[in-house]
Design a protein that fits this description.
alpha/beta, Signal recognition particle alu RNA binding heterodimer, srp9/1, 4-stranded mixed beta sheet, 8 strands
């Protein structure tokens, strides 16, 4: 078990969000749901904490009120092996959310995700700086990352 568990602060949607996320990623599950008791601060019986796993990584969803919301200062990166994976995660996580630049999106709960093909990292690490910069320029023009367009930029004559 990892020593670090990201805690995601929600107003009241922690259980709904955990169910949404676990429906998208394989090897995922709801581990435990804890409810507020008579001591509050929320009504007894309402969901306080949901412990869940996404592809084996444990998370905690805390329903603790509207005081704090997500920002792009933290995001979850999803490494994708193919365009099909990029398309699937982009579509499912972005459903009801908001597309951003360079492979970033916000889901319906406001949590930021980076949907990143491993091929992008490989092309950006190309030993030829000209190739790397062409790929970077192409990526900066994208919303959802398009691997074929990155490959085309990498292969373009200098």
């Amino acid at each position: 078990m990892s020593k670090i568990t990201p805690c995601l602060w929600f107003d009241t949607q922690g259980e709904e969000a955990a169910q949404f996320y676990t429906s998208i990623f394989s090897n995922s599950r709801i581990v435990h749901v804890a409810r507020y008791g008579e001591a509050g601060p929320r009504p007894a019986g309402t969901v306080m904490v949901v412990v869940f796993e996404l592809d084996g990584q444990r998370f905690l969803a805390l329903n603790s009120g509207p005081q704090f919301t997500f920002s792009e200062a933290i995001s979850l990166q999803v490494d994708c092996r193919s365009q099909e994976e990029v398309d699937e995660y982009w579509s499912r996580l972005g459903e009801g959310g908001e597309e951003g630049p360079c492979g970033w999106l916000k889901d319906r709960y406001g949590l930021s995700w980076q949907i990143v093909p491993t091929r992008l990292t490989e092309l950006l690490d190309d030993p030829d700086p000209e190739t790397s910069q062409r790929v970077m320029r192409a990526m900066l023009e994208m919303r959802k990352i398009d691997i074929a367009a990155l490959e085309q930029a990498a292969a373009a004559p200098a």
